Request: fold
Amino acid sequence: MRRRAFITLLGGVAAWPLAARAQQPDVMRRIGVLMNTAADEPEAQARLTAFMQGLQELGWAVGRNLRVDYRWSPVPGDLARLQKDAAELVALRPEVILAGVGATTRALQQATRTIPVVMAQGIDPVGNSYVESLARPGGNTTGFIQFEYSFAGKWMELLKEVAPSVTRVGVLREPAAGVLREPAAAAIGQWAMIQAVAQSLGAELKPIDARDADELERSITAFARAPNGGLIVAVSAAALTHRDLIITLAARYRLPTVYAYRVFVTYGGLMTYGPDIPSQYRRAAGYVDRILKGESAADLPVQAPTKYELVINLKTAKTLDLTVPDGLLARATEVIE
Reply:
């Protein structure tokens, strides 16, 4: 064989592994998602859409280089179901798991201390012993906190601003006692901040626990019998579950209401103020990406919300005979007409 032909053949052989590698499909990576809501809940769907969009922007595509396993625990407060779902996800051996709101993180930590967990809506992660500190989590969990308790007082200020005649305020919250520590802690922390502001504004507070639909209807109906009432619907998985009922009762009894979640206002509630939760899930996608690429959850700092939304439904305000101050409208992120 001539020398030139031999060199050409050798070069071709050397190129075979490179060509073969180029034709290989991407390595399939596996992640899990644990949510403490029903799968068809609109707010939950919006959050996961933001999460998946965030992953897509970072080069991940389901079916090409990513597999996602989901577990939905649709009944708030059902600890046994949540623990079962967490254990099932861990048994699938994903490389990282996204935790939704509240107790999902605790359930996952009980199931594994090795698989990284990224919180999208963590509640008081240091106080609940999820992490050693916000700056250096130290274990297998990191992510984003849902809110800082101080912002809950803003609901009281906004309610008085849009409805100055309100002197009685029902605060719809998770029951302050129960097997799930996270909702109870959130209820207590939010109540304390609302109470501090209410005292300075001369408003009387009434707690309304969101256990089930029947109790909610009885409690709100009883509260509405006296005049000058308004409602605050605090952060609560149960409130999302009973969203339509709460909006209906607020309209029926003409109760000005401030909500923690945007979806309430989209469906006819008066006003919401709180973190942009879908943006938290998009940011969580960034942490999942970094962990899949080799970084440790122990070294990724837990971050607070960076974007808050004030959304006002003017149609609802007109129905309640409320005139929204121009200054409040000017501060709104969005006005629904």
